[in-house]
Write the structure tokens for this entry.
Amino acid sequence: MTPPPYAPPPWPVRQRGWGPWAVAGLCVAAFLLAASLPCLGFLVLAYGGPDIDEPRAAADRFVQHLERGEDDAAHRSMCSEVRDRISVVEFTQAVERRGRPVSHELGRASFGDEAGNRAHVTARLTSRSGATTSVSLSVTTEPAWSVCGATVD
């Protein structure tokens, strides 16, 4: 007996391959990698960049010196260009003219440049009379963090 002749099946037979799935998987992986780069950059800058706590601490020490009447120490904690321009006596007169703070509250702090060499720290100062003044302290790093100026908001 002879075998029946070969007849193709009535439906088309598809070859199962990994090609389309591999391409789709690679596309999804590339998209996820590209989407995660900005997030990774932010995390590196936030946790690996300069620390904003140091300029905040310098501004806090400066204002504490003013509150305690330690104008010499406050003057020394300023940057050299300000110390060269204004004497301790002139500094004390300016503090008294504006109203010596008796308490303060630090607010927002941010860096003024990408390298983290300048920062701005806001503070709310309360004077003896109870009046409050918002001040933005400009803090720079020389060898150490020091206050280089203040603007009243």
